[in-house]
Amino acid sequence: MKIIFGIDNDNQERILHEMGVDFIVRPTNFVEHPVHYGDPSQQALAMAKAKAQRLDNDLNEPVVILTTAQVVTYEEHFLHKPKNEAEARKLLDSYHRLPAKCYTAVVAINAQSSQEAEGVELAKVYFNPLSKDEIDHLIKTGDVYNLEGGFNIRGAEWRRHIRTIDGHQDTVLGLPKELARRLIEQVQGQL
Question: Beta partners for 166?
């Protein structure tokens, strides 16, 4: 059964390719705006469901709709993409004290039967202390402004600053493989 993936994200598309999933990208153009309080896992799940519902309303064919959403927190504060250099610098300078927590929700819907399956995974990213020069360099690349929490785990530029990840790397990248595989299998059987 074909998968309609409701996100246009290179990291997540790469993960689907690694999984051997046959998919078509159909972005929902849903703008993620967590409310910045309450349970981060429930907020991620609510956003993933909203994206899936947008696609489900347009389809009635034998496909599985797959969407994801992520909420990143630090010291129990909800993070977003840094808006400016000062914000990026503050985040990068603080990460060595406590982990950044990535809550990634996945929703799968069988568009024909309306069967739904959902789940959330958590991964914690622990960073090494960053020097002022390292922070300057990371900010200069511009990546920090395009990333929730202002960090990435892909590429040597970032990996050398990560002490450890408690959880799966694919959860941090926005698509937990095993969770997605399990949810797809759950709804595919409901034809």
Answer: 124
CATH code of residue 163:
3.90.950.10
115, 187 Cβ separation under 8 angstroms: yes
- Count other Cβ atoms within 10 Å, centred on residue 54: 17
Backbone phi and psi for residue 121, each to the nearest 5 degrees, phi listed first: -120, 150
Task: Name the DSSP letter for residue 155.
Answer: S
Backbone angles phi, psi at 82, to 5 degrees: -55, 140
> What domain count does the chain have?
1
pLDDT digits (tens, 9 = 90+) for 63-102: 899 999 999 999 888 888 899 999 999 999 999 899 999 9
Q: Taking CA 31 as the corner, what is the angle to CA 25 and CA 33, rounded to the nearest 5 degrees?
A: 135
